[in-house]
Amino acid sequence: DAKTTQPNSMESNEEEPVHLPCNHSTISGTDYIHWYRQLPSQGPEYVIHGLTSNVNNRMASLAIAEDRKSSTLILHRATLRDAAVYYCILRDHNTDKLIFGTGTRLQVFP
Amino acid sequence: GAGVSQSPRYKVAKRGQDVALRCDPISGHVSLFWYQQALGQGPEFLTYFQNEAQLDKSGLPSDRFFAERPEGSVSTLKIQRTQQEDSAVYLCASSPDIYGYTFGSGTRLTVV
Question: What would the 3-class secondary structure string for chain B be?
Answer without folding.
Answer: CCCCEEECCEEEECCCCCEEEEEECCCCCCEEEEEEECCCCCCEEEEEEECCEEEECCCCCCCCEEEECCCCCCEEEEECCCCHHHCEEEEEEEECCCCCCEECCCEEEEEC
